Amino acid sequence: MPESVSITDNRTGKSTEIPITDGGVDSGPWSRLLPGIWFSDPSFGTTSGADSAVTEVDGDKGYLRYRGYPIEQLAEECSFLEVAYLLITGELPNGDQLEGWQTEIAEAALIHENFHKRILEGFRDDAHATGVLVSTVAALSTFFPESRDIQDPANRRRQIVRLIAKMPTLAASAYRRSVGTPYVLPDPELDYTENFLSMMFRPGEVAFEADPVLRQALDLLFVLHADHGQNCSTTAGRVVGSSHADPYLAVSAACAALSGPRHGGANEAVLRMLEEIGSYDKVDEFIRAVKAGERRLMGFGHRVYKNYDPRARIIKEAAHRVFEVTGKNPLLDMALKLEEVALADDYFVDRRLYPNVDFYSGLIYQSMGFPVEMFTVLFAIGRTPGWLAHWDEMLEQNSRIARPRQIYIGPAERDVPLIAHR
Ligand code: CMC
């Protein structure tokens, strides 16, 4: 049986055979056979936008692998910075490489004092943290104009280090500003996640020590969020990067795409949904509204996973460890009941809807003391190495600018009437 597909243009009787390579077919022969006929796929549901060696997701089998390594093993064995190194370089670091990488990141964590003195001060007091992050990541572009030289791999790597290093500083600074407490500068003596927790929660000059269980759980959440193939935000970052914009602007675009409730904003939406449902006995009523198409069960469903999101399973286990330290999140019982009811209901079973990464993550973040507005920002910190690995890979491949076609459905040519006749 040939590993190929054949397409025939019934208007002309001409045919073309296209080989199936790595599970895909090249669009070149299609467009040569059918000039001016576009493949219509507005949500990219069946379109591959990249040849990528970073992450493999199989939605039917329910697995996720970074550079070939199963997410379960990475979650068990590796810190977030090890995983970031893996995503960026393709291999896990040895001891010396990890030490060097941690030092590089720690030394790049400071942000220019204008962020604290001027830029952050310009936002409204109730500014949402995600909007602040999108803006401040974009502002980094103006502090590092050399980042525009995207052809030089060494220069690209410098910006990658800066971005991974500065995301927690920008995030914690946005939070500190929103609550009106003095900014805490990064401490190079602390590890990545501990340093972030210190910048977030250290009360002034008083010493701060993160609870090891909570520090580990947050680091694990960063690992689980670190990449997910060609998702909406990664694609947004790649599209912007394909115009050869600098990486700060590309990552800012990725953060913006992440913010929506269908994507990374879902973790915030789940918490708001649980608070709105209000009590255990209202769950059935809410599920009825979802099935009637009046509501959406946030934290459920995925374009790719039609089995179970492997990240959700790991997060659910981590939640129990966190609650042993913080006490049980009062919303947990409602979330568990929602999951139980939904998994037994034909509406969800038929559509293959399961809890995704965002269903339980918000409960953990909230129990750790993060305000709801910070949830998507935490997702962004975790996803930054993934965005950058894809951006770097795309430039390494010397790809063309992203420029989809459209199916035009507007009016045919017509004459502009004089204003008196409109
Ligand atoms: N609640 C109720 N019905 C749903 C849901 C949901 N959460 N998700 C999908 N459906 C239904 C949808 O109405 C449709 O039904 P029908 O065939 O009768 O019209 C069917 O399931 C297929 O859904 P779809 O909208 O075509 O699926 P999609 O692949 O376009 O959307 C999604 C994927 C994640 C945007 C969607 O499932 C959703 O909105 N989920 C809630 C938001 C959420 O949790 N997002 C986080 C995703 S995981 C983390 C990340 O990637 O950021």
- How many structural domains in the coordinates? 2
Mean pLDDT: 96
pLDDT < 50 stretches: none
Q: How would a crystallographer describe the biggest sheet?
A: 3 strands, antiparallel
Strand-pairing-aware structural class: mainly alpha
CATH superfamily of the largest domain: Citrate Synthase, domain 1
Task: Give the ligands present.
Answer: carboxymethyl coenzyme *A
How far apart are the first and last residues' alpha carbons, in Å? 62 Å
Assign a percent range to the helix content: 40-55%
Assigned CATH architecture of the largest domain: Orthogonal Bundle
Per CATH, the class of the largest domain reads Mainly Alpha
What is the 3D form? globular
CATH topology of the largest domain: Citrate Synthase, domain 1
Q: How many helical elements?
A: 18
H and E order: EEEHEEEHHHHHHHHHHHHHHHHH
What integer value in Å does the Rg equal? 23 Å
Strand order of the largest sheet: 1-2-3
Percentage of residues in strands: 5-15%
Strand tally: 6
Search tags:
single chain, 422 residues, mainly alpha, Citrate Synthase, domain 1, three-stranded antiparallel β-sheet, 52% helix, globular, binds carboxymethyl coenzyme *A
List the helices and strands and how they pair.
Blueprint: E1 4-9, E2 14-21, E3 24-25, H1 27-33, E4 55-58, E5 63-66, E6 69-70, H2 71-77, H3 80-89, H4 95-107, H5 113-119, H6 129-143, H7 153-179, H8 192-201, H9 212-225, H10 232-242, H11 247-258, H12 266-277, H13 283-291, H14 310-326, H15 332-343, H16 346-350, H17 358-368, H18 375-396
Antiparallel strand pairs: 1-2, 2-3, 4-5, 5-6
Bound molecules: carboxymethyl coenzyme *A.
